[in-house]
Amino acid sequence: MQKLLTATALTALIASSAVAQDITGFNIGILGGENAQDRLTNNECFRAYAEETLGVPVKLFAPADYDGVIQGLLGGTIDMAWLGPSAYAKVYLTDPEAVDVALVKTNLDGTFTYYSIGFARADSGIKSMDDMKGKVMSFNDPNSASGYLIPRVELPQQGYSIEPGEFFADVKFTGGHEQTIVAVANGTVDAGVTWADGQGNWEDGYNSGALRKASDAGLVDMNDLVEIWRSKPIPEGPIVLRRALPEEVKAKMIDLTMGLIEKDKECAYNIAAGETAGFSKIDHSFYETIVEVRRQQDGT
């Protein structure tokens, strides 16, 4: 038995060393949504597993905005990231050879979609988007699908202009999902949008998403908020890997991520922003519609 264990350990060491010869380090980008320290803390377990898997130093990067991760992928300084669909569309439209779509977070019912959720304070008297006329609306980041791109398309189609002073008294960008949730909860703005899988209970912040993370962190009591709008289903954002990485490195990171929920359910919960059935393989074709919507909106 001792010989078997030694041989197994030696095989693992040799495999890690082979990967280490191809790369000297590995960098994981974390999109905005929470404050930087919370993002780093929640992803530390995955960073440690990646370092063990690859046999090289692995670092986490949590830029202030979405574009920091986007530019890192385009510039080759970030190797892996879980992007929102709009952020992925920007990467693809800028350089279609920069990254490979690898995986997608799976909801508990097996779907790969989520929603842009409009919400307000429960004591505000705002029950629907109609009640937002003449009030202050907030969005997250220009590169967020749920926090800007999708509402930017769907709200005007439903008769709600997002131009300041037309339907809303003013429109503001908060910089991220957590910032929007806090701004609404504090009454700094009248309503905002964020992302959620739309499954489970409102009181929990649904099963996964920014509301769930904010509720878990004690930033808000969901009973103090009310849903006032919901988008059509949005394709869940992809986990991408820099295309120039060695194939063995990409394969190891895909295997690690797909097996994470069995390996460490709490870690999977942390990086998936709540309950998940795990991560499944997906490809670029799932995002072609989002890419085209972004192309049209950006005029490219």
TrEMBL record:
Gene3D superfamilies cross-referenced by the UniProt entry: Periplasmic binding protein-like II (3.40.190.10)
CDD domains per the UniProt record, alphabetical: PBP2_PhnD_like
SUPFAM superfamilies the record matches: Periplasmic binding protein-like II
Signal sequence segment: 1-20
Keywords attached to this entry: Signal
Family: Belongs to the phosphate/phosphite/phosphonate binding protein family.
UniProt protein name: Phosphonate ABC transporter substrate-binding protein
